[in-house]
Amino acid sequence: MNLDFYKIQALQKQKEHKKFLEGLKKKPPKNLDYIVQETHDEVFEKIDCLQCANCCKTTGPLFTSKDVERIAKHLKMKVADFEDKFLQTDEDQDLVLQTLPCWFLNDDNTCSIYEVRPKACREFPHTDRKKIYQINNLTIKNTLICPAAYEFVERMQKNLEKK
Ligand code: SF4
Ligand code: SF4
Hints:
The chain is mainly alpha-helical. It has nine helices and three strands, in the order H-H-H-H-E-H-H-E-E-H-H-H. It folds into two domains: 30-56 and 125-162, no CATH class; 62-123, no CATH class. Helix 5 crosses helix 6 (79-86). One iron/sulfur cluster is lined by residues 56, 60-61, 102, 104-105, 111, 113, 117-118, 121.
């Protein structure tokens, strides 16, 4: 997957994307959540995360205390040891990875803790959530690192034109 190409496209279209998403916030179409879900499904039919893993390589998730407990248990580690080995507290007081790419990312882009991965990993890039306009800033930010987020905004524009 050509990640540089996607990033350049996302930067070039950022203004247009922002305007479009702001429009959704000002005047949400009645069936917005439905179109969002449909668009999300279309995008992930086309995009294969195993060819990418850019989120795991460049950003990494926030870890909730439930995530930490679940993953530590899975690895048969004590919570404190897990935190010492892998996590740090960032400037917003969130628990994040100490290093990137994520330590749990395998060479073939699979996740070695897939079944118990953090909630944030399961939900990224948040393109199937309700009231998508509530996370407009995050979606725009994600278009710069995530080809699926970029494609999602592109296709949303087209899908809404069709309706
Ligand atoms: S969610 Fe986005 S950035 Fe992460 S692997 Fe899939 S396409 Fe790539
Ligand atoms: S835990 Fe798994 S899905 Fe989450 S960032 Fe690490 S490798 Fe990617």
